[in-house]
UniProtKB/TrEMBL annotation, chains A, B, C, D:
Quaternary structure (record): Homotetramer.
Pathway connected to this protein: Metabolic intermediate biosynthesis; chorismate biosynthesis; chorismate from D-erythrose 4-phosphate and phosphoenolpyruvate: step 7/7
Gene Ontology biological process: amino acid biosynthetic process; aromatic amino acid family biosynthetic process; chorismate biosynthetic process
Cofactor field: FMNH2
Reactions catalysed, as given in the entry: 5-O-(1-carboxyvinyl)-3-phosphoshikimate = chorismate + phosphate
Biological function: This reaction introduces a second double bond into the aromatic ring system.
Protein name: Chorismate synthase
GO molecular function, one term: chorismate synthase activity
Record has Membrane as a keyword: no
Matching SUPFAM superfamilies: Chorismate synthase, AroC (SSF103263)
CC per GO annotation: cytosol
Species annotation: Immundisolibacter cernigliae
Gene: aroC
Domain of life, source organism: Bacteria
InterPro entries for this protein: Chorismate_synth (IPR000453), Chorismate_synth_AroC_sf (IPR035904), Chorismate_synthase_CS (IPR020541)
Length: 366, 366, 366, 366
């Protein structure tokens, strides 16, 4: 119950199930005067949309967004922006066979235990389909942030054993894997093909970077920028790990090695990932996530039914062999929501009486 | 500004600077009727307290907690519990030399950029000393949870290159490193001694486990249990990475390998770390954090002063060579706060009309 | 910006403008297992709906609600309930004449000052039409509360100089004025007819009563039940005053006269209006509101235009001569939302260790 | 449980019981750089303080405030401001006689029903003594607002049948009644003397006015400025009614009579009380409250004991015969907290892209 809103000042509330009539989001707190039409939102939805390549789920959804409110004569009015996406290709019959069983590794079991009942069609609200609403809301934040010079970009950094470099940002939009290392795309294709054949799935790592972020965003102690990013990222379906900057590599680093030294020209490195003490430093913000392999696979597994009796399960619906791929636009959207919220919070502080002027230029080493 | 409260129903607000008059916390939302005295809180504070061994900072603080409100005749009343810890051993003169400079890797720079001024004495509120207030509040949550059979325990899992097993929970309290692998303690001592000699510091990994957690805690979509844990953990000073269950290992796992199969006797493994779809499954909750090496080290580093001019800096105050050590009770406290909050939230749902009964026993494989 | 959500655990977010594509609400926090269909909501919308009699606005709106999510096989699932109401009878041309002027007594001016732009069609989001979304959400809360024996009813207590008694609850649904004093209905009709002729409007008083409320709802200090009711009621368009129980009559009362004495059979009077110290006592909760006359009237008034130049204004659109009439179902809905939220909050406390048993039966004197 | 915090961006959390060790407040969200010492807060506490005249309770409390955090070198730092007020004159023995009985009209009964136990000494947290913490926090807000030209002032407008004019703001500080109608002070003295003799109490009306408030504060729909004021005021102990502007007089007003016409020189009247559509108009904000007579009186009354058995009660502790008197500084503090919060929220919006310029000068008719 509850928990479906995100943010303090730029508040996004999502609703909708995978196989219900519609998905949607309400954005409360968007500043007035932002030019906004459906055409600003649709491209991000299209990037996340299923059915666009043979490497993701074959469900066909147009994911057409309709703006229901909050925009007048092409400008946001400062009132809530209602966004609606109708579901069109629900094949609920796919789920009849598993309605009384729990897929291992899936939220089936915990939803049943929490709520006492569940919408078993496509996972209901636990489906990654819910993230379409987040992506739609994130597109609004991204448009606002772009006007402030803040750019948020993600890419697939690893799939299974295949590690992928950040060689070419432009390439990310030219393959269905959000891969910035175009020479590796055939390897990715081969792996997905093999997984489909095996009826199995695999995990992935996604990196997201925000550049142009001003220093000063983030609120110590609990609402730190890194804490809010971790909250946002761990809240994406299938994410099991989050890193900022050097991440888990810090465990073996010395202090003299980890710290980013500073010169009048800017920071000399960025192991911190752009955040110190929970507050943005002006350097690029660097985030990395680990996504588990989807649990909806064709290989049979042991499980129980609604009555706790032992049984086996096979999932034959349309699923992504690697949910990490389509997580790229979702992670971008969530990072945008966090930054948008903290930008507004920092603006509130600027009601203050202290004068804040930049001390050094932004990062030199990103 | 703001951001110093944690939780939705069990709300903890902390205040206080490292070198100000006092630290404290207000707990709003503790159920009435819980037996509570200072003696329930002091042991956790003593575990986090500085100056207890030569392997952590030499600052001497009694960290005596006083309950100011919310308890009557030995029982909580349901009203806010005010907790006060006076500072006693502030040696602010240590900081005169660095008041106009920014320690690389420290929050000095970002606080200055955010607020336009800062309490430079010991890092002010960015000091890990603030976490004493969290530990005090966490002790109240832990007492309540213990009454429900929920046990939260942490240990040091790695320091630099030294990896540490979970061999013996009892040993954790018998060495100053929260180490459950007692044979390795001499290695840890040697490493700290070397770091002190070098004027350097090192990172660490801490693991925290909650057992006895009922299924059903956590709120999809944004306030998922794992998302709230990530928020809590990334909000601890120096943390740069958070994992739930298999964490970043999922990147290379297959779906058939990662999923925890289920039998009528319980789950057959726990790679999920006790959370599926953001909701507790009844298995142990397993969390792992990476803590960076402290940035306050004696080795000189390049930085700038308040005016942006290039300079060098050396930090000679009393600091932990490995902040990860004392992070163990802090991580336990934060996990307790998350679970306490979600326990109350789930109780609110039980106002509902759906009947929720357990389907399988808890974990069998933990 | 923001501020369009209501509640802490049963959270209602509304969106939509008077002349935009649609209105709607998202309910986050409805317990699972509640039987719910559109037919549970539509009757309350029909009671608030415009165009049903010649005594309110002549705008014709079907106000058909669609449930977009959160219900599966006829039961709520514990996930957000999306509610959609399409606008159908927007006659925006009515507003062309006043788009650059501010109606005195209307939100035109303050919206313009706050946001720098505004949707001038029918007041945009400041229109009472927005309350349709609140009524829809309130209907869900009312259904849940009814299952707990909590009944919420309102009536028109005064229109202009015509004071109206609570003689007959059943009569409320049998006249277009929500009047429980049927003999006075012709007087009300005559007054409205006269106001239409004059192009003027008039204020009203509405009373709302909740019975069957258990003792113990409400959270001292700030989130008191009466404080939250005041917040809810003053947030209804046109409300300028709120009273609980004896209300402003307390100013001249003595303590010996005001206090409700108690016997083993229950309270002996109910001047408190069912709330003591911000917490429900188990007696009926009694609330009274004052609604100002609508500012959209045909009589010309002095005002300024967008550039601050003096001008006159006449409003010729379709408006209620007494907005207080249709406020009855809105006030009922808002009271339902407050009680629903506090019921869930109190349920969360019952995770506590204190045993709470009723001391006396409910009210005897209501 | 919970509910002891106020505000969204300028968040005040209070703690403490009437007869516990201390009261206090934590302010989270005060902008950095505000000059602040205890001397800024103490005068407001002294105005609310008991024992200063023979017309209020004879309890003697120094109410000395200590700033525990959030201020460095005389300036706020943007971190939480901890405020502590030790209790010194608790005479808990006064309460032994009534510990097992419920005072009619008092929160005794509802606290017991809510929490299952209660601190019966002086009402515990339901005591008006808790408001000292609010006044302390309000003083910080008032100082900030004063720097923006916003002035908040209250006065006693009625006590029992004695109505009091606003003749002279300066007089308010020169009598113990906060009376702006100095000729009436002897009447007030006589009434209090008579009430003390009779062992009875009486109600009161308090008016509070904020001037210098910029247009644009307040968030439609739910977090309207008037709704938040109503919430704040109804949350003050003993308040049973709240009015904005013309208040309940609107019930009999015509639209042509109520609306405040506008000219290029400003508004021509202020029946709205400075708020239209939930947003400040730039005119004076006018609020009026009704406070019930205190229920702690010497005249015996019927009640029940903890076991529900019939009994009588007499309250002999030290109490105010008219709690409305000392409510004046409390109401000022609460209005300051509301305005401070909305000022910061509006500042957040100014991150927006719409240009907002004032259209007319402020009020001309206040």
């Amino acid at each position: 119950m509850s928990g479906n809103s995100f943010g303090r000042l730029f508040i996004v509330t999502t609703f909708g199930e995978s196989h219900g009539p519609a998905l949607g989001a309400v954005i409360d707190g968007c500043p007035p005067g932002l030019p906004l039409t459906e055409a600003d939102i649709q491209p991000d939805l299209d990037r996340r949309r299923p059915g666009t390549s043979r490497f993701t789920t074959q469900r066909q959804e147009a994911d057409q967004v309709e703006i229901l409110s909050g925009v007048f004569e092409g400008l946001t009015t400062g009132t809530p922006i209602g966004l609606l996406i109708r579901n069109t290709d629900q094949r609920s019959r796919d789920y009849a066979a598993i309605k009384d069983k729990f897929r291992p590794g899936h939220a089936d079991y915990t939803y049943q235990q929490k709520f006492g009942l569940r919408d078993y069609r496509g996972g209901g609200r636990s489906s990654a389909r819910e993230t379409a609403a987040r992506v739609a809301a994130g597109a609004v934040a991204r448009k606002f942030l772009a006007g402030r010079g803040i750019l948020i970009r993600g890419y697939l950094a690893q799939m299974g054993d295949i590690t992928l470099s950040l060689n070419d940002w432009a390439a990310v939009h030219e393959n269905p894997f959000f891969c910035a290392d175009p020479a590796r795309v055939p390897q990715l294709e081969a792996l997905i093909t093999q997984l489909r054949r095996d009826g199995d799935s695999v995990g992935a790592r996604v990196n997201v970077i925000a550049s142009g972020v001003p220093p000063g965003l983030g609120e110590p102690v609990f609402d730190r920028l890194d804490a809010d990013i971790a909250h946002a990222m761990m809240g994406i379906n299938a994410v099991k790990g989050v890193e900022i900057g050097a991440g888990f590599d810090v465990v073996t680093q010395k202090g003299s090695e980890h710290r980013d030294e500073i010169s009048s020209a800017g920071f000399l490195s960025n192991r911190a990932g752009g955040i110190l003490g929970g507050i943005s430093s002006g350097q690029d913000i660097r985030v990395s996530l680990a996504l588990k392999p989807t649990s909806s696979i064709r290989l049979p597994g042991r499980t129980v039914d609604l009555h706790g009796a032992d049984t086996d399960i096979v999932t034959t619906g349309r699923h992504d062999p690697c949910v990490g791929i389509r997580a790229v636009p979702i992670a971008e959207a969530m990072l945008a929501l966090v930054l948008m919220d903290h930008l507004l919070r920092q603006q509130a502080q600027n009601a203050g009486v202290a004068s804040v002027t930049p001390i050094i230029p932004g990062a030199v080493d990103d």
